[in-house]
Every structure is written in C-alpha cells, then in structure tokens.
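dumping this here before i forget
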Amino acid sequence: MQVTHQAYRKAIMLILMAQWLGALTGVPGSYLVGSQTRHQRQCGFALFLISNACWLYMAIATSTGGLLAMNLAYTVTSIRGSPTPWYRRPQG
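structure:
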C-alpha cells in the first residue's frame, strides 16, 4: 500500500495535535483537581479525561505499548477517583 506524502503529513499533524492537546489539558487538569471548589475539581477531572484520550490516541497511532498501558491505567484510576461518582448507583 502506497502512502502519499499528503496522507503522511496529515497523520503526523494529528499525532502532534494529540500530543500537545494532551499536554495542555493535563497540566491545568492537575491544578484544578487540587482546588477547593467542587466545580473546579470537576473541570479538572474532565480535563484529565481529555488528556488521557489524547495520549491514548497517540499511543495507538505510534504503536507504543508502554504509553498505551500507562494511560489506560491512568484513565481507570481517574474514573475510579472521579469527584462525582457518575458510575455508581445511589444507595437507598
């Protein structure tokens, strides 16, 4: 299968955009998770999930198994420690 120069450039640009979006959402996400207000913690959690999705995409696109495994674990721990337990059913 012949890959054109334009398709190659597009793939590289998507990987670079995912890398930078992952970095630019992860840093403020970590800051906001440590905030005092519930709204800021929820925003930080959402930014973390966006960051994790970007890094997962990049790991799959570049076939880097270590990065994929690490970010899958980060995603699971982020969901487990979410400030709003949306995945749990209310008791009572």
